[in-house]
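Exercise 7.
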Amino acid sequence: MEEQSVHSSISDINSEEAVRSEPMIIPRKKRICLIGAAGDDPALGAAAQQFSVPVLKSETGLEHIEDTSYCTYFILKKFEGPEYDALHKSAHRILGPTALLQLAEKKDSLPSISRPMYTQAMVGTVVVFTGFRKKDELTKLINMIHNMGGSIRKEMGAKVTHLIANCCGGDKYRYAVTFRVPIMSMEWVTALWNAKDDISSYGNNEELIATYKLKPFFGAKVCFFGFPDEEKRHMCEVLHQQGGESTEIDDPNCTHVVVDESNVNALPDLASVRAHIVKAEWFWTSVQNEGAADEKEYLFEDYLESVLSPTISVRRDSQQAATPSTASTRRKRKRLAETLSSLVQNGADSPALHKRRSSISDAGHLSVSGSFLDCTTSPDKPLLDEVEAVNTDSSRKNLSPRHQVFLELVQTESNYVGILSTIMTLFKSPLEDLIDTTGELLNGTEAKIIFGNFPPIYEVHKKMLEELRYSATHWMEDISIGNIFLKFAPDLVKAYPPYVNFFENTKEMLDQCDQNKPRFHAFLKVCQTKPECGRQSLKELLIKPVQRLPSISLLLNDILKHTSKNNPDHSALELSISSIKEVMTYINEDKRKTEGQLVMFDIFNEIDNCPPHLVSSHRSFIGKCDVMELSEGLSGRGDHLVLFLFTDTLEICKKRSKAFNSLKSPNTANGLHTTKLSQGKPYKHIRMLSLSTIKKVVDIRETDECHKVFALMVRSNQELKEKLFSFTITDEEVNKTNYLRTLCRQMANTVCKADADTFLISLDSHQLEIDTSDVALGTLSKAFKSLFHNFYLEYMDPYVFLLNSMCETTLHVPLPFASRTRMKVGRAFSFNKTPSKLKRAMSTMMSPFGSTNSLTPASQQLAQMRLASCNNINELGNGGSGSPSRDDVLVAPMSVQPTRKAKCSSLSMASLRRNCSEEVMQDKSDL
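Solution. The predicted structure, written as C-alpha cells, is:
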C-alpha cells in the first residue's frame, strides 16, 4: 500500500505540472533577465548575449512578473527562497547558470520548458522508480531530476532510458534486466545534482553510469551451501564486490541460499522460509548480466524434481516464498526429504536418477587413454543409435576384437566432436555475438586469440566422424579404416599446428581475461555448470585437441594388432598411423620453431645495445652456453661471456657480474662516497658473428690443465686474415662435444653443406698457445681488489690533494681495480701530460699499506714522499743530501706495483714474477 501511494505521488506531481502549465499563454517574444549575483557574472552576461534577445538585470525579478508581453527567462543561481517561489508560480521560465552556459556552448536556442531547469545534465533522460518506500525521499529525487531536465514515468516502456531501483526484484526490475535498461542507484541522481555547476557533467556519461549502477546483489543476504571451502571463499568475495552480504543459513534475514547441486541432494532444513533456495547458476548469471536473475528460473527444488522423478512435484511459487510457510508446504518438504533419503540408501542406480558425475563414478567411464571422452555428452547422441545398438554387453561377445576397438574409436571420436561442438556453441558463438554491443564480454582481438585457430579442427573432425559412423553402420571385416584417416591427414596437418603452437598464448589470454573481467569470469562459471561441459572449465576443454592425436594413434595401433596381414586394411592402417605420427612430428617441430622465435624476443630485451637485426622472421634460437674468454680479441682474457646460438648467427655477450659491474665511480662531492647499483640489462653486446664467417671450430683436447676448451677461427669478407677466439665452457650442464656438433650443424646449414664434420677439427692446446693457468689468478685478483674498494675511497683524497699541490698536472684518480693491464691503467689515470717516471712514483705513493704497517703519523709519511720531478729548494741548497734513504721511503708492496704485460696470449707464473722484478729494478734506477 505504501508503494502504491508513492507511485500515485509520481502521477500527482506530473499531473500538477501539466495542469499548472496548460492555462498559461506564453508569448513568442523572449528575453533574458539575470537575477541577483547572476548579473555580476561576466561569463553569464557574455553567454546571454549569444541568444540575440534583450538582456536585463534585476535583484529579484519580481517587477517583470506581470509583464506578459515577453516570455522572460529568469537566470537564478539558487533554486530556493521566496524570490524563486514567486518566479516559479509565474508564467515565465527559470534557468540555472549551468543550463545557460551549456545552451550557449552548444549554440542551441532557448528551450520551451514548463519546469525550472538548473542544468541540462539529464535532458533526454526518462526515469522510472522502483523499490522506494519513503515518499519524502522520492519527492526529493523527483525534484532533482526535473531541475536537471529529466522526465519521469510511472511504468516501464520503450521510451524509458533508466530504472532507479532501491531493491533487486520486482516486475520493473525484471523488465530492465531483460531489455538491458540501465539500473541505477539513487546516488546517481544525487551525484549529478552535486555537480550541477559543472557544465561538462551529463547523466549519460559511461564512466558515471558504471560507477553508480545498482549492484546485482544490492540488499541481498546470501548463504552459500554445500560448496568446497575455497570455492565458497571465492564466491563470498564476488558477492561483496557485487553489493551483497554473506550470511549463515540459520540467519532469519537470509534472502537467498545458493546450493551446489553437485554436492547437495536435499533441501537445507535450516533455511528461512522467506529465502530463495537457488542453484549456483543463478549467482553467476546475475554477475554476468549485472542484474539479479529471476529466482523462479533457478530454483533448487525444480532441479531436484527434474533429476529424481516426474512423480515428485514439490514446487514453490513466488507468493509462497514471500509468505509464511503453511503446514502443507512443510509436509511436502518432509516427503521430498524422505524420498531423497530412500533413494540415497537404495543406491544411485535407479534409472530415474541422472546424477551428476562424481570423481568415483567418473572412473568407470574413462576410456583406454584415461580421458573423459567416453562419458561426455554428445550433442548429436541420437545419430549414434544404430552404432550403440551393437555396443551392449550381450552383443559385444559376438563381435570380433577388431570391430570392438573400432567401435571404441567411433565412440571416443563422437564424444570428442561433442566437446568441440560445445566449445563452438556454448562459448565461441555467444561471445562473438556480443562483440561491439553493450553486453560485450570479450573484444574482437581477445576472442580471436582464444578461438581463432579452433574452427578448422572442429570442421575436419566433424567430417571424419561422418565417415566413421558410416563405416560403423555398414561394418565389414575388410572395410578400410586406415583410408579414412589417410584422406583427412592433409587437413589435420593444416588444422593442428596453428592451434598447438599458440596454445600457450591462448591459455595466457584466457587467464588474463578471466582475472580482469568479472562478467567474463561469471560467464565461464555459468557455462561450467551446464551438463554438456561435465563441470569442466573452458581451459580444460580447450586442451582436448592437444591430447586427441596421441589418443587416435593408440587406438589405431590397437586396431592394427587385431587386423591380419591378409586384410587389405593392414597396409592402410600402417600408413595412417605413420601419417598421424607425421602430423605430431610436424606439430612438435613447428612448435619448437615458434618457441625459438618467441625466445628470441626475450633474448633481445636482455642484451644492452643489441643489434636490432638480431630479431628476424627467418631466424630462431638454438641454445645458450656460458664461457670464459681465453683470448684478447673480444672482451678480454678472463671475462665471462655468453654465446647465444641461432640458426645463422652467434651473438656474443658479456655477462655483467653483480660483484664488479654493479659498482660505479664514486661521487666524492662534499667528501661523501656513494656506490650505485646498476639497474641495467644482464648482458652487454660484444659482437654478432654470422655463422658463415666462422671457418673452423677447434676442439682442444682435454688435459689436466685444459678442460672444456674450444676455439673459433673467424674471417669475414672484409678481413684479410683469420682471428682466433678461444673459450672455456663454464656451464657444468653443457656437454662440449654435443655443443660443438650443434654449432657445426648450424654452420653447415648456413652455407648449404651436407657434411658438418668438415668444420670441426681437434688440436692440442700448445699448438694454438692456449694456456688456462693464469685465468683463475686474474679472477682472484679482481675479487681481492674489490675487498679493498672502500679502503681506497677512504684514503684516496689526502694523497690526491698532496699530489695536486706538488705538481702542475692535475691527477684524476679512478677506482683502483678499474683496469687490468698497464695500458688501461695509464688511460684511466689520465697521465697524458705526465712523465712515465711519475707513473712509477705514483704506484709507490698510493700504497694503502704504508700507514697501516708503520707507527709513523700520516703527516710525516706524506712529508717523506718525493717525486722524481719535484725537489725541495732547501734540500738543493744542501747538495741534495736531504733525499731520504731507502729505509725511510715507503715502498708499495708488489701486489699493487705496475707490471708490464707480455705480448704473448698467456703468462706463466715465472714470467709474471720476472716482469714484476724488472719493474722494481727500473723503479729503483729511476728514483
